[in-house]
């Protein structure tokens, strides 16, 4: 296999290469975004800084970087990774299985194999590499849903508006679609699945990392606000048999949330539909906001916090799970590019620890601590004041 980083810069990147080689190494879905969309930045800084030719350096980022992103998303949507098992498959068989044109599919797979996603074992036959295998839907840490999500037309086209977004401050999404994501989703049910699948897959990968740094055993009732389809809540409840849980999200999302109706957690959980700008379920002693606040302006984020403040028990805790809030002006590409995605899609942003502190105070909470996790996110813990 030709490793992506070798193909790009001639020698393996220190961090990402480990993930390609060792499937057992934690590989959060959110990281996949880093790898194929922005990893070039780290490769660039880690491996190419010593190259003399500045234009060569830029080319490593945009060629194949920019093209590889959509190629990976397309191959995920087409379902090629699922169609290849333990042994190589001929491209004509793959084209038949996936309903695609043999020659076009061959060109797609050949391009991807040049950067370590699939490998051509003999002419016209492709097998998995660790990277391509992670695109299988049944992979324990599947990257499939994030690959589909990040290449979806509404994200891809919105990102194409970046220059205008930077000039105007208006998100590319709003420029193109004239509405916010919730309204867009209501009118595009096929994309709801794409969105929810990516969020759920990210949450599944985050569960272990969260449980490693935060002890839920002292609580009675956990409420996940904007909790999507309930994967994170399910994982927390499964780890703590004495805990009850409430999932809160928009009614349409709750309607498609079935994971809490299965198994041992079914009797200890309920799913409630509503609008967190109006009210949130009461009675919890730990409230979670994962990946929610970064989609909103400060004023909207404060409104959500105030609703939680009026519902939480006096001795309760609020956990905000988002990209690690840095305390210095260090540049973290994972967070910085997530912030760029927020600029592209929403009116929100990634926040620093100081920004969280002041947001929390405005919402009636006091910052306690920020705990990094082994995944891309940190846990900001706060208590009511
Ligand atoms: C980025 S997703 C995060 C989902 C989940 N917490 C996770 O990390 O996988 C934001 C969630 O907030 C929900 N949401 C957005 N606006 C909402 C509102 N006004 N009331 C309740 N939930 C809302 C969305 O439906 C979505 O599930």
What characteristics describe this protein?
7-stranded mixed sheet, alpha/beta, disordered N terminus, binds S-adenosylmethionine, 3-stranded antiparallel sheet, about 375 residues, single chain, about 15% strand
In short:
By secondary structure, the chain is an alpha/beta fold. It is 50% helix and 14% strand.
Compile the SSE list and pairings.
Elements: H1 4-9, H2 16-21, H3 29-48, H4 54-62, H5 65-78, H6 80-83, E1 89-90, H7 91-98, H8 102-113, E2 119-122, E3 125-127, H9 130-133, H10 144-150, H11 153-159, H12 162-168, H13 172-177, H14 181-187, H15 189-213, E4 221-225, H16 231-239, E5 244-249, H17 251-255, E6 269-273, E7 286-290, H18 298-311, E8 317-323, H19 333-345, H20 353-363, E9 365-372, E10 377-384
Parallel strand pairs: 4-5, 4-7, 5-6, 7-8
Antiparallel strand pairs: 1-3, 2-3, 8-10, 9-10
The structure holds S-adenosylmethionine (SAM).
S-adenosylmethionine binds near residues 199 and 202.
Please, could you describe this protein's structure?
The structure is a single chain. The chain is an alpha/beta fold and about 375 residues long. The chain has two domains: about 5-145, Winged helix-like DNA-binding domain superfamily/Winged helix DNA-binding domain (Arc Repressor Mutant, subunit A), CATH 1.10.10.10; about 205-385, Vaccinia Virus protein VP39 (Rossmann fold), CATH 3.40.50. The chain has 20 helices and ten strands. The strands form two sheets. Strands 6-5-4-7-8-10-9 form a seven-stranded mixed sheet, with helices on both faces. The longest helix has 25 residues, at about 190-215. The model is unreliable at about 1-35 (pLDDT under 50). S-adenosylmethionine binds next to helix 15.
